[in-house]
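Hi Y.,

Following your request, here is the sequence exactly as I used it, all 509 residues.
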Amino acid sequence: MAVTDGTVVWVGQDGPGRALHPDAVEVPLDGAFVAPAFVDAHVHATATGLHLAGAGLTQVRDAAGLLAVVADAARQVAPGEVLIAHGWDETTWTSPRLPSRAEIDAAVGGVPAYLSRVDVHSALVSTALTDLVPGLVRDDGPVTAEAHHRVRGAVRRRITAEQRATAQRAFLGAAAANGVATVHECAGPDISGEPDLTALLDLAERPGMPAVVPYWGELATGEDAVVRAKELGVRGLAGDLFADGAIGSRTASLHAPYADAGGTGERYLDAEQVAGHVVACTDAGLQAGFHVIGDAALSEVVAGFAEAERRRGRRAIVAGRHRLEHVEMIDEEQATQLAAWNVTASVQPLFDALWGGENGMYATRLGRERTERMNPFAMLAATGVLLAGGSDTPVTPIDPWASVRAAAAHQTPRHSLSARAAFNAHTRSGHRAAGVDDGVTGSLVPGAPAHYAVWDAGELHVAASDSRVQRWSTDPRSRVPPLPALGPDDPLPRCLRTVRAGVTIYEGS
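Below is the corresponding structure, written out as C-alpha cells. Let me know if you'd prefer a different format.
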C-alpha cells in the first residue's frame, strides 16, 4: 500500500509497488497486518480520561470491597477536589446490598465522592457532594434521573482546566493505542458542558491526535439550541439527548414493569418533543438524534419521527441522516421504519457481552423473554438500518476488537452479525454515520484517506467452520482483509501503529 499526502494512492503486489514508488519510505510489517482504523461511534472523552486516572470499581464484588477501595482513594484526593470512581455493578456482586450514605461518608470522611454505576445513569455519593447541590433531596441510595444530572453538574464544576486537559489527552491517547483514529464525542449540557467540548476539539486539532466528530445533546426547543450547535461546530443535536435512562439503573423507559423491582423507568421526552426536535434539526441541516434504550421510549421516538415526516416529508427526513444511540429494545416493524427514514443505529456490542445471556443483568432486570430480544443486530442490518459500533466509554472500555467479537458472537445467536459486517460497523459505518459517504473512507483503496492501523495478531487462522464466530481468510488475494480469529478464547490483536490521514498518531513496541 502506498500513501501520498495522507491518501492511499496504490494497493497491490510488492514488485510493482516499488517500481511505481521508488523513493517511498518503506515500513516493514514483519508479519503484522494492516486494516482500516477503527471508529468509535459513541464516547465521552473527559469522563473516560478521569476514570482512567481515578479509582476503578469494576472488580469489587460487594459493598465492603467498594468501601475499601474508596477509603483508600479518598486519602489521595487533594483539598477541593472530588473523588471520582467508576464501574460498580451490583448485579455481579456476591450480595446486591449497596452501601448506605452513612457508610460512604465514614469511608471518605469529608471528601465529596462521586461513585458512578457502570452505566453512568446513577451514582452513589457522599454527603459532602450532595452539599454542593442546593435543594437536592438527600435520600439514601443511588442518585438517579434529574438528581443524577445535578450531581454530575456539581462534579463537573469542580474539575479544573488542568484536570480536564490531562483527562482528554489520556483518553485520546488510549483511543489511538487501540487502533481508533476517529471518535464521536457525545457531549451536551448535562454531560460535559461547552468549555469541555471546545477544549476537546482544540486538542484534537493538534498533530498526532485522533479525529473528533462532535455531537451536542440539547433539545431544539427554539433557535438558541440551533445557534449554539452551529457556534460549537457540532455535527448535530444528537448523541446523549436522553429519551430515557438505562436498564441497569432501572431508568430505561419500558412498556411492562421491571422484573426485579417493578416500575417502568423514566421517560424524558414524548413524541411531540421528538418531532419538534427532528423538524428543527432537519430545517437547520443538522443531524438529530436521541439516546434511547427502553421499548416505551423507542415507541415515542418512532412516533416522533413519523410526525416529523408528516410535517416535512420523507425526502427531507431521509436527507437529514439522523441517528439513535443504543436502540436496544426494538422490533422488526420499528426497524423497518427507521431504515425508511435513513436513521443510523449507534450500537454498543459489549453491552450484550457484559449483560446479555440467560444469567446476565438483562435477565435479572427484564426476564428471559425480553432479554432474548435485546440488541438484535442481525435484524437491524437485515432491514437496512446502518449500524455504527462504539463503546459508550467509560461504560465499556475502548476495545474495538472485543466489540467486533461481541457483535459476531452475540449471546443470543440469531442476533449475531457476520464477522465482516461487525468489522464494517466499527470502521466504514462509523464514517457514514457522521455523514461521510464518499464510498471509500474507512476502507483501504486508492483515493481513500489513509486511516489505518497495524496489528500483531500472532498466527492468523484461515477460515474455519465455527458456526457462531466466523474466522477470516489470510489469503492476500482475498477482498476481505487478513483479520484474526474471533473465537472467545482467541487472543485479540495488539496495536503496533495507528495512522490518521497518513500521520502516525500511535506507535507501540
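The domain at 169-433 is CATH 3.20.20.140 (TIM Barrel).

Thanks again,
Q.
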